Task: structure prediction
Amino acid sequence: MTSDRILYYDDEFIRKFEKLRDVIDAGDRRYLHRFLIDNFGFIFEAFQYYAKQGAEGNVPEFEEADEETKRELMRPLSYRQYRMIERAFSVLEEEEELVIASVWDFLHDNGGIYKKRVMSPAEVSGCSLILEQVFCCLAQ
Result:
């Protein structure tokens, strides 16, 4: 999942991601809230680390990564991921289920999650934004 502050799409991450779809579909908002905190809360921590250390130009884990990982760390958000962020912040209150589904849709990225090796800083920040909005919906 995390290794030297780089978030990997390893077997554990994919297993939790696939369970997330089932948890969302079950509709138990309290369980979903706890599941997100327990299984994806580390994304907030990574975002804070990347924001602080990246601003200071001090993310040694990125510099020490192999070339393939470095390339993936430079990956921008896909158009679809931008749309998921927009959706999370623009739906009406009665459509909040779309907000909740946005976190899964963002990570899934039209099947792209299965081709990726690491989560880029852009994905970490986008996912963090969506998670924050999902938590707001779940708190209501």
